[in-house]
Design goal:
about 100 residues; alpha/beta; 4-stranded mixed beta sheet
Length: about 100
């Protein structure tokens, strides 16, 4: 039996001051790198808008990343908004009972 491959391509890019886009797969293999990169990119922004339009796959690790970004933004007194959260992530958030806590636009 062939083992399914886990997507490992992901990028986080700044598109404008405080505006970012993430593309690729958010999973247990990719989230730690995205988290590290985001800490450098996000620290000098007054507010954050993160667009998920180009996310191709996500699991619970992706949702954990969103909650960590929310926690970190709160600690830095930054506003944060998520745009175009994939249906997969929305379903996980709904099942976990946190869908209403996500700052979406």
């Amino acid at each position: 039996m062939k083992k399914a491959q886990v997507p490992t391509d992901v990028s986080l890019e700044q598109v404008d001051q405080g505006r970012f886009k993430i593309s690729g797969a958010l999973n247990f293999a990719t989230v730690p790198d995205v988290w590290q990169k985001s800490q450098r990119l996000f620290q000098n922004c007054q507010s954050l808008v993160i667009d998920f339009t180009e996310v191709t796959h996500s699991n619970s690790a992706g949702l954990a990343l969103l909650t960590e970004w929310m926690r970190a933004a709160k600690a830095r007194n930054q506003a944060i908004v998520f745009q175009h959260i994939p249906t997969q992530m929305q379903e996980i958030a709904r099942v976990c009972g946190v869908e209403q806590d996500l700052p979406v636009d």
